[in-house]
Amino acid sequence: MAEKLRSWSASTLNERKPSVSAVKPVKVRRADPSGTLETDFLAVEEPLEIRLVSRSEQGVREQTVSITMRTPGREAELAVGFLFGEGIIRQPSDIDRIDKGGPSPNKGGCNIVRVFLTPDSQPSTEQLKRHFYMTSSCGVCGKASIEALAMRNVPSVAGLDLRLSKRSISKLSNRLRSSQSIFDLTGGLHAAGLFDCRGELVRIQEDVGRHNAVDKVIGEEFMLGNIPLSERILMVSGRTSFEILQKAVMAGIPIVAGVGAPSSLAVELALHFGVTLFGFCRGSGFNVYSGEERLAC
Which of 101, 128, 155 is the last residue of a domain? Predict the structure, then answer.
């Protein structure tokens, strides 16, 4: 299955046109003296149910592990990225196959992804508990949530010597924005991009949710067998939350940057795992919240 995942994902790497199902045309009337009736394009938002199917001597077990509102497209990558970020899968060989289906209002779309695990890859009951944090107001103790990652033996990235110049950092947001093809049509999507040490864009995904965009881009790299991403920088189009830092840590990404501010728990997590964290990356200015040693002149 590892080779199948690589072939599947590699076949769509160069796709840059927005998915037809990701945008929806609507008629709007301009609120100005002209009163012109025009066509506007909206970012589509639909639910996606991620189901995990495992086999054992007791039989086949299928269970829902997540339901998320997302922009259609890259459903398999989103599901794989999510499952990897939660520690439910660890390598491509854990996956037997991926099926997409379910009714969708959009032609050719789907709203259910089933990820079938190999018999040798059986997640524990603890892994399948919904221990991930759905909102910023869930009340979970910050210290406990960081310790939960440490208990899963997630390695620190403190020893990685990737460095990025101030000039390269200042260009990240513009390069990310200029590659947002669906945002150009709708003005209503977030993006997550992976950059190399020169600040060149390697991979980008868009979604109505920042965390979904991150899952899509990391899921694609997982399917290509590129984890850990020890020579990549993750850039997100909005604020940087604990959840986004968690996904970066799981993927072994040493540098994370955001157009907006990080949360306090994101900074704590970055400090704990040795991640360099930049915020307010707009134009030539930015803030350094952790890992200043990776900042080159």
Answer: 128
- Burial classification of residue 202, based on how many CB atoms lie within 10 Å of its CB (0-12 exposed, 13-18 middle, 19 or more buried): middle
Decide: 89 and 122 in contact? Cβ < 8 Å.
no
State yes or no: pLDDT of 12 exceeds 60. no
* Closest by Cα among 44, 127, 46, 23 to 83: 127
Containing structural domain, residue 13: 2-128
Q: Of 174, 171, 170, 207, nearest to 192 (Cα)?
A: 207
Of the ranges 37-51, 134-148, 271-285, the best mean pLDDT one: 271-285
Q: What's the rounded Cα separation, in Å, for the pair 252 and 266? A: 15
If we measure between CA atoms, which residue out of 51, 67, 219 comes closest to residue 132? 67
- Backbone φ/ψ region at 220: left (φ over 0), alpha (ψ -120 to 50), beta: alpha
Q: Which residues pair with 203 in a beta bridge?
A: 194
For the stretch 37-93, pLDDT in tens is: 888 888 888 999 999 998 877 888 898 999 999 999 999 999 999 999 988 999 999
177 and 237 Cβ atoms separated by less than 8 Å: yes
Q: Which residues are catalytic?
A: 138
Nearest 5°: CA angle at 64, between 207 and 92?
70
Q: Give this prediction's pTM.
A: 0.85
Q: What is the CATH number of the domain that holds 61?
A: 3.10.20.10
